[in-house]
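Side project, low priority. Logging it here so it doesn't get lost.
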Amino acid sequence: MTTLAAPAGWLRTFFGPSRTPAETILGLLGGAAVIAMLVTYIRHAGGWHDWSALQIVIVAVTGLDLVGGVFTISATTASCWYHRPGPAAQRFRMTFVISHAVLYLVPVTAVFGLGWTWMLANAGLLLGAAALIEGAPVDLKRMVALALTLIAALANRIWLPIPSALQWLPLLLMVKVLVCFLLPALSGREAPADQNCTAGGAC
């Protein structure tokens, strides 16, 4: 069994140990397929052609980062790292959630004029759901995360409407943060206190 030592440097500390070859390949293939579908959906929904250059850039960066992040942080190796024991990992998870509420919602709201009510409502949904997931018992976290993600997605469809070409944004954001990031990996054991992870996801 191969053990990966705790990463050195802030970048490696953020991303955690290197992914396994299988995780890397699946992430690249899955990410490329989802991005292709997302581009197709936006075009089908009437996006791209009447957007300004700034709007196109914001959507492109947001979409690429969301999709790429879904596959990067949902890897078992990454999840093991983000859910290692200790207060530092917990602080990092909450900082991650808060930064995503700001970095994704504010630019899109500003350039598309979605209204600050929409932004604040989605930020509240994201932060509130994250707090509930973090506080839930380990054996219930998965059900809590899935329930809150579906509730947030449906709340957006019912009470927080936005142009069709942007309706993927709140759903992907909730899935990335609430499901892919905040749920610990299903593994045989917890990560040891020295913050080592085992290749292949046994944490």
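Brief comment: Residues 12 and 55 are 31 Å apart (CA to CA).
Revisit when time allows.
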